[in-house]
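Subject: sequence -> structure tokens, single chain

Hey, anyone have a minute? Need the predicted structure for the following. Not urgent.
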Amino acid sequence: MKNIILFDINQQHLELLPLAFTRPIADIRIGILTIREKWERLLPGSYSYLTPEYMAEKYPATITPDNLFIASHLIPDENLATQVDRLNPGEALTDHDTVIAFRGTEADFHEGRHTTSVPVGEEPRYINHLYDIFLLNGECLEADFRLITRGRTGQPLSPSNRVIGDPCFADGTPKIFLEPGAKAECAIFNVTNGPIYLGADSEVMEGSCIRAPFAACEHAYVNMGAKIYGATTLGPYCKVGGELNNVVMFGFSNKAHDGFLGNAIIGEWCNLGAGSVASNLKNDYSEIKLWNYPTRRFLRTNLQFCGLIMGDHSKAGINTMFNTATVVGVGVNIHGAGFPRNFVASFSEGGTAGFTDVQLPKFYAIAEKMMARRGRTLTEADKDIFEAIYNQAEQLK
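Reply:
Had a minute. Here:
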């Protein structure tokens, strides 16, 4: 069995903060699956991570004399997986002189020693910037849908639902797939622009209107009367209501009530209170600038649409209003009237009147209560990661 190590490039780790604060880049969800889950399906092997040092205890690398190192921000497809699989010992797969995969020893990998460089064939896809996650979500969702459902038959869709558009792709495969335990009643599914995937024990409640491409992973819930536009992904155990447009929620997060969220990325264990609204378009239709952690300033994006980007374990009280392209760090609690600033540093609490620091014991107490509702626990390894982020927060404000 191949020993495969998904390695974080330091610059990419920084570019993808705050989402990469708490996870290897390969654990970012885009489409239906995380990047690691895509690789596992396309290239079987034993997987581990090479992360920044502060995450190594929770995500240790397994090293053998013969390893396959793969850049973790690289989005795989079948052709790319085949190219990586064909690497011989000492060979590197390169893209514009940058090593994106290497087969060999740990020492040779770290020293950049490779006997042969093999240029990648087709132009690969990467998550280089935060907004790439929602920009690429549609094509990744359809690719994941085909990968997951190939050769399988899903559960039947209840006749109480209404399907708009051709229910099958040109090759005859269905565009709607329900895993065991998935439920949907009296909902409208428009599959004109792609597929709809309902994971195990997920539920779409009555009165919901959903436009493809769309995915609800296991135990995700769409509340009554929700309006969801593609390309939207609800990670495991997410619960949503109101209006969503091109949103990626990683998992265990809630936006259960009315309010708009568009062109947004929400990490794990987040909660947006009832009536929360996040702008994704400036009033003057001008180009959006987004907070960039490595430079500690707002950078141009060439985008007209960009909404809320929220790190893990952050919360917003009822009727919170977010400006266009707001970046919220890890462990943030926002409340009160008015618009908070466009960047809120990790472990902060407050609103338009200003923010104060959230001490770790208080943060742990809140996190433990929320995680317990889903039968999860906050481990000592998790706490070590949060402590490291907390210590970095002052430098990254």
